[in-house]
Request: fold
Amino acid sequence: MLKVITLFKRCPGASLAEFEDHWIHRHAPLVCRLPKLRRYVQSQTIASGYKKGEPAVDGMAELWFDDTAALRALQDGSELRAVLNDEINLMAPTSRCEIITEDVVIKDGPIPPNGVKNIELVVKRPDLSTEVFHRYWVATHGPLGGSIPQVHRYVQSHTRLAAYRDNRKPPLDGVALTWFDDTAAMRAAALTSEYANTRADEHNFLTEPLAFVITRERVMLG
Reply:
């Protein structure tokens, strides 16, 4: 199973309410018509994320497909054209960041009802090879993050190796997704030794500081 992740800022001039309404009621129905789409989730930055200025992104869309053949089948189709044509009404074009990923589930717990989802934008340390980075993220860093008691679920979405062919450099090397009961639980997590150990390990494989947003997710399909 492959996952297409798109991160973006809202269209210039749009209020948060206008952005949310368009994303849910106008853009989502277009996305849901994509052939062979298995699952579609919207994650929108929570209101408190704007208290200290504009967050890294306003939203993230996750779209699951069976394989690359399903993605290729979308090309030149009217359904995909409709989605792309509407993006100008939803997002700031220069903010759009897309990666194709594969999920690694580190902590396979349930997603809490009405919980919050933390999204960290992952960029590897430039001196590490792609293979070393991905192995370290899963095998060494993953157990550290998964040990944080307040984390219900932890998923690493790794940018596919195909994105690095011919010396290409994808915009992100992945995203880290963790789910909590609420922001109070996130604050409590930040006081634990497990959290401290997790953060202390980041300089071993990541470019710091990590951009992140706290969101609530909406399952639109699947």
In short: The mean pLDDT is 97.
